[in-house]
Every structure is written in C-alpha cells, then in structure tokens.
Design brief:
Blueprint (H helix, E strand, L loop, with lengths): L1 E6 L4 H12 L4 E7 L4 H11 L3 E4 L2 H10 L5 E4 H9 L6 E4 L7 H9 L3 E4 L2 H18 L2 E4 L2 H9 L8 E8 L17 H4 L9 H9 L1 H14 L6 E5 L5 E7 L4 E5 L5 H9 L13 H4 L13 H12 L3 H17 L5 H14 L10 H24 L5
Parallel strand pairs: 1-2, 1-5, 2-3, 3-4, 5-6, 6-7, 8-9
Antiparallel strand pairs: 8-10, 10-11
The structure holds magnesium ion (MG).
Magnesium ion binds next to helix 7.
C-alpha cells in the first residue's frame, strides 16, 4: 500500500489523480490533499477517502472547512501547510498538480524528505530544475514526470541504453491557432485561446499551449530531467496528440509512445512505477483514428517557442525569467490587459531589460524571490507601456 499526497486535488490533474486512486483501492491510500478555491470539492474528496490531512490557502478557508467536515481531519494552512503535507512521515508519493511557481515549494520539500515526486508542475523544473535534482540526489528523493511528453520519454528511455539515444522528439498539438493566419492573431480573445483542441487542462497551461510557449518550457524540462544537450531535443507538430514523444536511436530507429490523450495514464504510471496497472479506459483504437499527421514547427508564427528555445541555450537563470514573465503575462491576458500577441512582446522585453545580480543557488528562497521580482518587473512594464499608449 502506497500513501499518496495530492497537491492541487481539485484542479484538472488532481481530479484525474483521484480517479486513478479510486481504481486501485488496495494499492493506494490518500493521506493528504490541498486546494485553493474549490473548497466544497475538497470537502467531498476529504469525506470520500477520510483523508487525515487537508491543506487550504487561508485561515478563513480552514475555518469554513472545519465547520463542514463530518470527521476529524487535521487542517493545514498556507505555504507552511503545503510544506507539512509534502513532508508527511507516512507519505510515499507526492503528486504536484498545481500550476505556477508555487508548485516548487512542495516539490522541494517532498524531495528533501526523500519522497517520490510525481511532477506535473513544469514551472518548478524549468525555473529551478538544478536545485530540485540536487536536493533529490542528496536526500534520496526521485522525480517521475507526469507531463505527458516527459512521461512518454521517461518510458521510452527505459527501452535502450542512453548511449544509443541520439534525439528526443517532443510532439506538440499546435494549439487552437495552428492553422490561423498570423494576421488574424489580433482577433484572439481569452475565450478562443482557452479552447484547446485535444486536452482538457487548467487556464495557465491552456494559454501556454496556444502561444506554444508550453512546448518551449517542455524542451527545457526535457533537457534538465533527462540530461540531454539542447541540440538533441526536437519538436514536431502532431495535431492528434496520440504520439506523445519519440526517441531516435543511433541506427536510425525511432521509438514512439502512443496512447489516448488522457492524463490518467501518465499519473497512473508515476504512481505505480516501476509496475503498471490496468486502468478502466478505452484502449487506443488506431483504426478509428485512421491516420497520424506530423509537420514542422513554424518558429516565426509562434515567437514564444523561439524565445523559450533561446533561453534554454542561455541556461539559468534565463529559463526562470522567461517562465516568471509568462506567468505574469498569462494573468494579464486573461484579465484582458494585454493582447495575445503582446505576450511574446513582453517576454522578449523582460528578457532584454530585467537585471539580475546573482544567480540563485542552492537556496529555495533565492529562486522564489527572483521569480517574484521578474513578475513584478513584467507587470510594471505593462503598466508603463500602456500609459504611453503602446499597441502591438
Ligand atoms: Mg505536456
């Protein structure tokens, strides 16, 4: 029996994780859950599994939850609550399902406590991957990726020796604007950008998929997780999201990972690894799909992807700066303060103008502080330019 903690249990990853756990009641026990705003959903999850530890963001949320719960659970609050959940003595696997840099905090402390981290939060690995890897090495923690492409690569890399692997190939659906003429990009609203063609996900990653910066973050994620040089990592467009990644071997053989685009699969893999267990899902019917398509990435049309590739080459702390700036810009875009095209404009401007004096090193707070400074810088940049009447 493995004890599971789910950070972000009411979001799209967390909800899928709960479904996975439900299928294996004799294998997994949920001992901790956290949520920020969907308190009623958290209450129901808590009651269903009689979860002993529940974490919420504010004291008010804790008071509400306490008053509604019919069983005695310990209710934890704020970042400290997340740290406590991540380090629960009985915990075996900590799934990080929240979006944004906040995911770094529980990921760091879980690894420090020697846990397995099932990592769906790519912001933490992009911004502080070296720190996470080092802390995992020192304390015997392990990172199993839940991002579908990286779960696929993780599985594919077990098929042959690393010395025979020439290339990692990530697939990208291309997002909702793949076939749009860039001249029409001014017409993109948050509502249109929030409609992803193949995946149901939270707002941040859905917008990131529309600008394709998500795929750029995934290049960085793959580089750090698997220790491959940037030149050995490629991206191709594959609109059906059935092939999740490929590896090219020395002799020209290409191995591909295919499955339904359903996050329950990589979540189940990360929880069960190194075993596999059968989920009650439809199997992938290739004859129903008929054909799979692949095409080259248009780097001009999606400048965010190009910028991410550039920061991957520059190395730390530039990936953190890009990621933090994007976090601020996605918020601004969803609040209709900036246009879709301005996301890449402001990322580039932040990369060019933000000044840092030291690189963060071996200290979680230095990463979090720099991240916050970049976000503030980008927000001020927007305000300044909007005052001057900038339009893209
Ligand atoms: Mg992905």
């Amino acid at each position: 029996m493995k004890n599971i903690v789910i950070i972000g249990s009411t979001g799209s990853i967390g909800t899928s994780a709960i479904e996975v756990v439900k299928e294996f009641p004799d294998k997994f026990r949920i001992i901790g859950l956290s949520a920020k705003t969907q308190l009623e959903k958290l209450r129901v999850q808590g009651e269903t599994f009689r979860v002993p530890f529940l974490a919420v963001e504010t004291k008010e949320s804790a008071v509400w939850l306490r008053s509604q719960l019919s069983y005695p659970a310990e209710i934890l609050v704020g970042d400290e609550g997340l740290v406590e959940l991540a380090q629960l003595k009985e915990g075996d696997v900590v799934l990080i399902g929240i979006a944004g840099i906040k995911g770094l905090i529980p990921a760091y402390y879980a690894l420090k406590a020697g846990k397995r981290v099932a990592l769906a939060n790519k912001e933490s690995i992009v911004s502080a991957g070296e720190l996470l890897k080092e802390i995992a090495r020192e304390h015997g923690g392990e990172i199993i990726p839940v991002d579908s492409e990286h779960s696929a690569l993780f599985q594919l890399l077990r098929c042959d020796e690393k010395k025979y692997v020439k290339k990692l190939i990530l697939t990208a659906s291309g997002g909702p604007f793949l076939t749009w003429d860039p001249k029409d990009f001014d017409k993109i609203t948050p509502d249109l950008a929030l409609k992803h063609p193949t995946w149901q996900m939270g707002p941040r990653i859905t917008i990131d998929s529309a600008t394709l910066i998500n795929k750029g973050l995934e290049i960085i994620e793959a580089k750090i997780l698997f220790d491959f040089p940037l030149e050995a990592i490629e991206v191709i467009i594959h609109p059906q999201s059935v092939v999740h990644s490929l590896v090219e071997l020395e002799d020209g053989t290409i191995l591909a990972h295919l499955s339904l685009p359903d996050m329950r699969l990589p979540i189940s893999y990360a929880l069960n690894y190194p075993e596999r267990n059968t989920l009650s899902l439809n199997t992938l019917d290739l004859t129903a799909i008929g054909s799979l398509n692949f095409q080259k990435v248009d780097w001009e049309k999606f400048p965010c992807l190009r910028l991410a590739y550039e920061v991957a080459r520059l190395g730390p702390p530039y990936p953190l700066i890009l990621e933090a700036s994007d976090e601020a810009l996605v918020e601004a875009f969803l609040e209709r303060k900036i246009s879709f095209r301005e996301i890449s404009y402001y990322i580039e401007k932040t990369l060019n103008e933000f000044k840092f004096f030291t690189k963060p090193e071996k200290d979680l707070n230095s990463y979090l502080t720099l991240h916050q400074e970049v976000k503030t810088f980008t927000k001020q940049l927007i305000e300044r330019e909007k005052l001057c009447g900038f339009t893209s």
